[in-house]
Amino acid sequence: MFKTNWYKITFSLLLFSFYSGAIYGQEEKSDCVIKLEQAQSKYDQGRIQDVEPLIGDCLADGGFDKTGKTQALKLLTLSYLFLEEPEKAGETMLKLLHANHLFTVNPAIDPSEFINLYDKYRHEPIFNIGGMFGTVFGSPIITDLNGTPDLNNDSRQSYSPLLGIKGDLFIEYKFKPKLYLLGGFSFQIIEFEKTHESQKIISGALNGGFTGAEEVTSIEIPLLVQYHFWKKNKFTMYCALGVAPQLLLSESYQSDATTFEIDGRLVTTNKIVLTPDRNRFNISAIGIIGAKMQLDEGYINLRVRYSQQVLNSSNPENSLTPSNPNLLWELTDAYDGFRLQDIGFSVGYTRNIFIPKKLR
After folding, report:
1. From CA 216, how far away is CA 203, in angstroms rounded?
2. Are residues 191 and 326 in the same domain?
3. H-assigned helices in the chain
4. pLDDT tens digits for range 114-136
5. How far apart are CA 242 and CA 287, in angstroms?
6. Which of 2, 135, 172, 237 is the most exposed place for a label (fewest CB within 10 A)?
7. Cβ neighbours of 248 (radius 10 Å)
């Protein structure tokens, strides 16, 4: 019986503590919040000249949080408008837009004088800056067949994409409603696997072969035009088209992922660098479809990106005479001419950059 009563007493004390704390939190208000309420009451009563003396010091001393500061600056701007002090109204409107970049007018309740003043100031972001990271899957589009199997019309080689990575930094600039210009910098590592079976020309018997993971590391500068074709609440769908000049940093068969066969034995070769025989500069055509979700002063960005090189990636002059002879003597391979294509999936965050100012 005693234990049961003890539990009841403890529970009652805890409940009373929570309730008292909630009541106390509701009743406890800072002096600046009280003054803001008083200023609003004076404004509603038509005693507009009393607004600034009540909240001016709190604004100067940083006595409001973001919500309170927004309300105070709006109230002060309205007061200056009706006191026919347009210069002070303009100054406080600019402070309001700096304090709350997402502030918007309400045509249903805001006076027309306040809306007209708001329209004289830039309140949209001048540009956005963001970053993305994701996966990419690439594979070659063959343009020239130069390997031994190809020369004998017996294609015993194949390519398959492997998992790669891609990172982007970019800037968006809105130049028309729903239209944006994008420029940036991208780093990517594309990998694909080549399976090659060499063949004796006379007997037709297999004479070894190899499976190699080719790794292509490059940077690019994408230049795109983005179009927002659908928007609802905080969600936006978009598409983009453009080009990207590319610089090849390195390309190689990786030593830990390359094996070839000699007389039935599997042998792992050393890393074979392919960079000297590749074209270092290229350009890609890009297509993107994506979605944005608004979050305060930025948004989460999701996208699917397809890219295809316009120029040949390999140098035809080195197809059968590569810089590294091990490509021929160890792997019995020759370069095929190709252009890279890839598809990537990325996620990132974009931040809106606001610089409010008077437009006219």
Report:
1. 36
2. yes
3. 2-27, 31-44, 51-61, 66-82, 86-99, 112-119, 148-151, 326-329
4. 999 999 999 999 999 999 999 99
5. 7
6. 2
7. 19
Contact 193, 212 (CB under 8 A): yes
User: In whole angstroms, how far apart are CA 291 and each of 136, 195, 206, 257, 302?
Assistant: 18, 37, 51, 36, 5
Q: Which two tokens stand for residue 317?
A: 């002059």
177 and 75 in a common domain: no
Q: CA-CA distance, 295 to 159, in Å (whole number)? A: 42
Domain of residue 94 covers: 2-122
DSSP 147: S
Q: How confident is the model at residue 11 (pLDDT cuts 50, 70, 90)?
A: low
pLDDT digits (tens, 9 = 90+) for 318-356: 777 788 777 776 676 777 788 999 999 999 999 999 999
DSSP per position, 191-238: EEEEEEEEE-TTT--EEEEEEEEEEEEEEE--EEEEEEEEEETTEEEE
Same-domain check for residues 317 and 208: yes
CA–CA dist 12, 225 (Å, integer): 64
Q: What are phi and psi of 149, to 5 degrees?
A: -60, -35
* Average pLDDT of every residue of the chain: 85
